[in-house]
Amino acid sequence: MALEFHSFADAKPFKFLVGKAGKPFFVHAKLASHQSSTLATLIDGAMVEAEREFAVFDDVEEKTFIRFMEFAYTGDYSVAEPVVVPHQPDIDVENGEDSRGGSVSPKMTDDPDAYPPDVLEEVQVEEPDFDFPPPPRKKDKKKRITDPWAFSGDEPAAPEPPKKSKGEQLWESFQDEAIVRAPSPWRPTTNSDDSEDYTLVFLCHAKLYVFADKYSVEPLLNLVLQKLRLNLSRFILHSRRIGDVVELLQYAYENTADYRDGIDRLRDMVTDYVVCHLEKIVGHSDFGKLLKENGDVAKDLMPKLVRRLD
Known about the structure:
By secondary structure, this protein is mostly helical.
């Protein structure tokens, strides 16, 4: 349940030293305690952090903590944007080929002496010989034939609505603006081509999930999983972007716990996605390497693959 603003507006702030640099961030103590019982113990309990009135989060990135603060104050958080990585093939101008074996035209300059005669002949453009047809003759306008039986009298004009006074117009304008404009719901971006790298997008969710899981912020955990699922659902898995998903999978398994019974929720979601697109992902070198180095990935994938075969 959201905490009423007036209940913590006059409360003292609690300091968090975040990241390796220990950058200070301040959150109203009562609001931070309201997020989870774990944070409440840290801030108001018998721990040393409560006594000295600050906590050190040196294993949390600044951007991740800012998203937590945003959630604490607004109930939502901003998602990272994808990074555009355009194709940049290496070009060998001397041999006239690019890195993919395609031909490359010679680089043009303003100096005509820099080219052999045969090149100049190829690029020389002759002036076109235009032969325009004569303009069409204008057709004689036919005389309009009037209907001798048509009614020639004046039709009665429709009555005009009564004019509103300036005061009435001002009141209507005032009423038209009486609208509460609610914020539009969050919509995930969709990659239009394979130049958009979504690694930062996926990891911003995953890192916030790890933070919320460590400090038992259950509402934030649920929101992160919803947003990540939306991003993955709209994500077009181009072959060049398979590494974005593999990196998310690797981060999830390196930073969440392995349970004897059951599976971590972040691991569960990402492996569900991998199983759905296994034909594309299985041949990726980083995915094969991850399977060899982390046995938990294969352990969690196998039951899902069996269910898919059934």
